[in-house]
Amino acid sequence: MHKKVTNELNFWHRIYVPEVIRGIWITSVHFFTNLGIHILHVFGMAKKHKGMVTFQYPEDPRPPAIRLRARHRLMKRANGTTRCVACMMCETICPAHCIYIVAEEDPDPRIEKRPKVFDINLGLCVVCGYCVEACPEDAIRMDTYIVETSSYSRDGMIITLEDLMNHDNQDMYPRH
Ligand code: SF4
Ligand code: SF4
Question: What are the C-alpha distances in Å from 44 to residues 38, 39, 49, 55?
Fold first, then answer.
């Protein structure tokens, strides 16, 4: 039988100090256990026990998960032009209204339109991935693994068509 979830404080919660001591005790147990494991590893012992590790970010960033949704990119055709046909599906579905596209005629007579402007305001983006799901051309993806997108200004959070197309540096992709 499940225990009923309650917010009621019992006697020990109400007098406060025992709970503080309990919290310090739990933290100390974790700290000294982990410290002990790392010391044993230095002497080549207890290799089966894995100690907790802190990533030294930003020098040593944590490897991203392979399914991570990160900064967007626009895919290219073999001739280097964008696969985007400016259909506005992504702009329409975006719940944050952070995609802005202006279409223009494509010089290739087989293709109707291409984007003249394609801006994404990362300051508003909620990283939901709906734009990727909605695209009928597989033209937009969120697989750059670029997560450091902060800026000192609001304008700096807007990525343009040029930014979205500039992803030839394969070093941005993690090796799994
Ligand atoms: S990930 Fe979501 S919020 Fe961000 S641009 Fe795409 S649809 Fe909009
Ligand atoms: S849904 Fe795809 S093809 Fe349509 S405008 Fe967006 S990126 Fe371009």
Answer: 10, 9, 11, 22
Strand partners, 73: 141
| Nearest CA, atom 6, ligand 1 | 131
Ligand nearest to the CA of 99: 1
- Give the chain's domains with CATH numbers: 1-53 (no CATH), 73-172 (3.30.70.3270)
Ligand 2 centroid to residue 152 C-alpha, Å: 29
Residue pLDDT, tens place only, 84-126: 999 999 999 999 999 999 999 999 999 999 999 999 999 999 9
Collect all residues with Cβ–Cβ distance below 8 Å to 106 and sequence separation of at least 6: 85, 112, 113, 114
Distance 128 CA to ligand 1 centre (A): 5
Q: Whole-number mean pLDDT of the chain?
A: 91
Q: Tell me which ligand sits closest to the C-alpha of residue 131.
A: 1
Instruction: State if residue 128 touches ligand 1 by the CB under 6 angstroms criterion.
Output: yes
Cβ neighbourhood burial of 90 (10 Å; 0-12, 13-18, 19+) = buried
Q: Measured from the CA of 93, which atom of ligand 1 is nearest? A: 7
Say if ligand 1 is within 6 A of residue 157 CB: no
